[in-house]
Design a protein that fits this description.
Blueprint lengths: L1 H16 L38 E5 L5 E9 L2 E4 L1 H4 L10 E4 L10 E8 L14 E5 L12 E2 L9 E6 L15 E8 L1 H8 L9 E5 L14 E4 L2 E6 L12 E5 H17 L27 H10 L4 H4 L4
Parallel strand pairs: 7-12
Antiparallel strand pairs: 1-2, 1-4, 2-3, 3-6, 4-5, 5-6, 8-9, 8-11, 9-10, 10-13, 11-12, 12-13
Helix pairs in contact: 1-5
The chain binds 2-acetamido-2-deoxy-beta-D-glucopyranose (3 copies).
The site of one 2-acetamido-2-deoxy-beta-D-glucopyranose (NAG) has 5 residues, from strand 9.
Length: 320
């Protein structure tokens, strides 16, 4: 009971002290019922440290290698491209999703994958409805981990979007980086897009084409990699293009056009009619257990620390 009281005090203190800094750290990890709005990403400038936001994720296959980019949407849900994740669908044992924003208070930012939901009308290697919802066994921990909102704007030609990736899909151009990179692209009309592909590609009503940067080194096209407009997820990398020749447009799935599938999947999971993967005998992963901090929090000390901290909330955050 004393612990609960202290928690409340701590949370209160943190809330009061947060606006002082330029960034945001959360007093605790995400749990299964964390409401999405509580952890909504508020833009690059709102987050702390050298990261693009705690919503940007890497999906790793069972060997621990990069599979796809992903965007954190809800405690147990990650959005990616169906074409990218489809080949892994039958070997999910040990496949994980990893956060890209870490703080000194985090021991782990990795969650195991439970199942993957594909739209009924998605066909492998086709553009239509190229989106998948990855369901996690547990939320991804981390004090910087956040959710991204789905697109609310109509994506139109000439809009400038920001894409994120590691460069795994452009090995010919340069080596992938361990940290994600960002780049800017502009949306082009379907008409213009069709012209550059000729008859070699059938566009879909759920696709968005973008003009890639002239410099192939700035081209980011990892499958499932997110494309954002302001603070919203408006696209994920689909198939059909390559960074080798950036005169070809990049193809993304238009998140606004597939939002219904995402929301229905979310509802179905909440209502319990989309099932979890059947239980297999669990290999308990060797978890790092933090030495439990003293449960009695010295509030005098805490107040003192809060008052003197005005510069970097990431440095000053209190781990407990
Ligand atoms: C990439 O991220 C950096 C750091 O957050 C930012 O300054 C830059 O403007 C971003 N570039 C684009 C194209 O968004
Ligand atoms: C890229 O593709 C365009 C269109 O097919 C072609 O004209 C151009 O020569 C290609 N560039 C390179 C570097 O391959
Ligand atoms: C709490 O910390 C302050 C400052 O370090 C110290 O003076 C005080 O004795 C501590 N109180 C307890 C109950 O440990």
């Amino acid at each position: 009971m004393g612990l609960a009281k202290n928690w409340l005090l701590l949370s209160l203190l943190l809330v009061i002290w947060m606006p002082l800094g330029r960034g945001k750290v959360y007093p605790r990890d995400i749990y299964r019922r964390t409401p999405k709005f509580r952890r909504a990403w508020m833009g690059v400038e709102s987050n702390t440290g050298p990261n693009f936001g705690g919503w940007l994720l890497r999906i790793l296959n069972s060997d621990g290698n990069f599979a796809c980019g992903g965007a954190y949407y809800a405690p147990l849900l990650v959005i990616t491209s169906a074409n990218c994740i489809y080949p892994y669908r039958n070997s999910l044992e040990g496949a994980t999703v990893e956060g890209t924003a870490f703080s000194k208070c985090d021991d782990e930012n990795v969650a195991e994958i439970d199942t993957i939901q594909f739209p009924e009308r998605f066909i492998y290697r086709k553009l239509y409805m190229d989106v998948a919802v990855v369901r996690l066994k547990e939320p991804i921990k981390g004090r910087l981990t956040e959710f991204i909102r789905l697109c609310t704007v109509k994506v139109q030609p000439r809009m400038r979007m920001v894409v994120f990736g590691w460069g795994y899909d452009s090995l010919e151009v340069q080596k992938p980086s361990s940290d994600p990179r960002n780049s800017s692209v502009s949306v082009i009309s379907l008409k213009e897009c069709r012209k550059s592909f000729g008859k070699s590609l059938r566009l879909s009503s759920t696709s968005v084409c973008v003009r890639q940067p002239k410099n192939p080194r700035q081209c980011l096209y990892d499958g499932g990699g997110p494309m954002i407009y302001k603070r919203e997820l408006c696209g994920v990398v689909s198939i059909g293009s390559q960074c080798q020749n950036t005169s070809y447009p990049g193809m993304f799935t238009n998140i606004k056009r597939v939002a219904r599938f995402i929301r229905e999947t979310e509802e179905g999971i909440k209502a319990g009619y989309i099932f979890r993967a059947p239980k297999v005998r669990q290999k308990t992963p060797a978890k790092v257990i933090r030495s439990p901090a003293t449960s009695e929090i010295n509030t005098t000390e805490l107040k003192y620390e809060a008052k003197t901290t005005t510069i970097d909330p990431l440095e000053a955050m209190v781990c407990n």
